């Protein structure tokens, strides 16, 4: 039990040494992440739409039929 208590105490001591980012840095990084995800989602959606239309054209002769 002593070892577990000592381990926890050392963990807390090490966490106090960590240089944590400020809220501004976190928000800035989060903004970059969200914008990147949206851009990639739009690109992948456009590629999916084009490939779907291409396959539809190859197999039916019409672009995006139902």
Q: Give the DSSP E fraction (strand runs of 2 or more residues).
A: under 5%
Main sheet record:
none
**Succession of helices and strands:** HH
The strand count comes to 0
Could you say which overall geometry the principal axes of the C-alpha atoms support?
elongated
* Global Rg: 26 Å
Query: Which bin fits the share of residues in helices?
Result: over 70%
Unreliable spans are none
In oligomeric terms, what are we looking at?
single chain
* SS-derived structural category: mainly alpha
| Alpha-carbon distance between the two ends | 68 Å
- If helices are DSSP runs of H or I spanning 4 or more residues, what is the number of helices? 2
Explained architecture:
There is one protein chain. The chain has 66 residues and is mainly α. It has a domain at 21-66. It contains 2 helices and no strands. It has helices at 2-17, 23-60. The longest helix is centred in the middle third of the chain and has 38 residues, at 23-60. The protein is elongated.
Provide key terms for this protein.
single chain; 66 residues; mainly alpha; 2 helices; 82% helix; 0% strand
In short:
The chain has helices at 2-17, 23-60.
SSE layout:
Layout (H helix, E strand, L loop, with lengths): L1 H16 L5 H38 L6
């Amino acid at each position: 039990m002593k070892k577990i208590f000592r381990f926890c105490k050392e963990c807390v001591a090490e966490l106090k040494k960590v240089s944590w980012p400020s809220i501004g840095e976190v928000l800035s990084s989060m903004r970059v992440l969200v914008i990147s995800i949206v851009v990639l989602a739009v690109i992948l959606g456009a590629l999916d739409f084009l490939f779907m239309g291409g396959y539809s054209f190859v197999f039916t002769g019409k672009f995006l039929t139902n």
